[in-house]
Amino acid sequence: MIYLLVLCVVAAAAAWKARVVVPADHVGVITRRFVAQRPERAYKHVNPHNARGVLAHTLLPGGHWLMPLVDSVECVPRVHVPPEMIGVVTALEGHNRSGRGRLARHVDCDNFQDGARFLLGDGRRKGQQGVQVRTLSGGQSYYINPRLFSVELRPRTYVPAGTIGLVQAREGGVRPPDRRFGSHVECDSFQDGEAFLAAGGEQGRQLAILGGGMSYDINPELFDVFTVDNVTTARDGLTEAHLREISIEEDDTGVVITLDGADGEDDPDDAVAPRVPGHSNFRLPWVFLANGGRRGVQEETLGKGSSYALNPWFVRVMVIPTRVLILKWHNKGQSEADNYDADLGQITVKVQGRFELAVDLWQNLQIPPQVAPRLVSQFGGTSAAGLGGLVDDPAPMRRFVRDVLGVAVTGYFNEIAMTNSVFEFLESYEDVRKNLTDRVKHALGKWGVETLETNLGDFEPTDPAMLDALKAELFEELKGKQLDQAVKNAEREDAIDQYLARAESRRVGMEIKGEVEALGRDNVAMIRIVREFAGFDVPQFIGGGGDISGYLSTLPLPAVQDLLTRLRQLRVDQQLMGPARQELPPEGPGPHRTGEGAADAGSAVGD
């Protein structure tokens, strides 16, 4: 009876020892003794069987019955991963990794809570030692065997709003040397490391980026992620500016230069790459490459008023203004650093080899968005080396303004300065302005740039001391022109006088001819002599009077008699003619005859 009682006490004590209660938020780690050891050499410290040593499976919170004296249980806190953190798991036991990778491939084992399944495998592979590719998500607790796994808490990857995250793979295949990026793999924004490796993800820079304003469960042992918060750790010149979304203002257009893609043609006329469909404004660079996108300046531009999350390892965006630009030729050093007319110096024209004139010029122009890629391809900013991102560099536009607009204007003024004098140069101002406008419009039109307005100022001497010499030169030139004009006017007046004299001669000749036909030559001659006498101014000393009677008294008597006889005969002839005389035009004093008319009159009335 005593033995039975002792046996019952021993059995009760053993039963008490066999029951184990695991507290809440803890996990029970079992160590087994006094049993056979498994022969597998892969499990030196933790085994997935019920053999001697630490067992892979664990006890969850609550009561459990174990073999007394054989099993001992250690209760340890469960693993808790706080929000905004992830757990990076390292297997302390398992099979050796195959290949050269540093990370162990994933085994389906309930987030490492089923240690035995991890070691024995899930049908695809068995658990491997080392850092695991799969991580533990934050905000949860896990019943993990601490003898089999260690868990390191790491912060989640956060990309601030308005920025991007660049990813570089530390594990994966080795990409060919002629490719700048690893092959694109769909892997849930790099949160599924197993999918990345299983699909052939490659080491190095990745084409896909991480969008801003979100957090990601990314294994830092598999991927390096560069954000504005840690960009100082980058070694290739990456800055915060490269990691910000690209915004195009209302008055600009974005010209895209891809840093990777197929080789372009050697034809300079084909310097701008054609459009490629499906890449969502270069947000999906792997689609761009798969569809045959070419490296270099793209025909497709980024529209104004939008923001773009683009990979600066893949694209560079150059801002070109589409607003109306007012360009001014000015003295060096007066332009601001970002002005596109910084290389346009003051316009000076040397006329006649010694008079240097300065003039102000303003040119308004506008660049259509579809023209911008060609300007960038020809005037710089197309290098595929280095980093991309947003580039607000005025250098290409300055080169265009200098080499196209500036050369056209300078060439025009040099041409007209060689062919014109100072006076011609200044008096043809309107022609200069019009011809200059046409020259500028032609030069810019070849590039598709719109010419809006050309404003030309006044010409001024560059040296004030030359103003007097210039005035003197202009005065002499003007005086010469005035004299030339006076000679021309005198020649015109002389020609007019000759014309009037010939007309008067013809009129007098016709009149005399009519009188001769009516009265006879001798009578017409006598009448005209008397008319001439009647009009003479007789000197006061003749006869003491001023009329013709005094003059007649001085003539010899035969002359007076002959004159009276002729007058009487003329009167008789006039009475006999009667009506015929009345048809003759009235007589009166005529003008002095000169030239051809005088000669005709003399021949008509001469003896």
Describe this structure in words.
It is a single chain. This protein has 14 helices and 28 strands. It is α+β, with helices and mostly antiparallel strands and 607 residues long. α5 (372-379) crosses α6 (395-419) and α9 (466-519) crosses α10. The protein is rod-shaped and about 220 Å long. The model is unreliable at 541-545 and 578-607 (pLDDT under 50).
Question: What is the topology?
Answer:
Blueprint: H1 2-18, E1 19-22, E2 26-32, E3 46-47, E4 53-59, E5 62-65, E6 71-77, E7 79-81, E8 85-91, H2 115-120, E9 130-136, E10 140-142, E11 149-155, E12 157-159, E13 165-169, H3 193-198, E14 204-210, E15 214-216, E16 223-226, E17 246-247, E18 252-258, H4 285-290, E19 296-302, E20 307-308, E21 315-321, E22 325-328, E23 347-351, E24 355-359, E25 361-366, H5 372-379, E26 389-391, H6 395-419, H7 422-427, H8 429-445, E27 450-456, E28 460-461, H9 466-519, H10 521-534, H11 548-553, H12 557-577, H13 579-582, H14 595-605
Parallel strand pairs: 3-4, 21-26
Antiparallel strand pairs: 1-5, 2-4, 2-6, 7-10, 8-9, 8-11, 12-15, 13-14, 13-16, 17-20, 18-19, 18-21, 22-25, 23-24, 24-28, 25-27
Helix pairs in contact: 5-6, 6-8, 9-10, 9-14
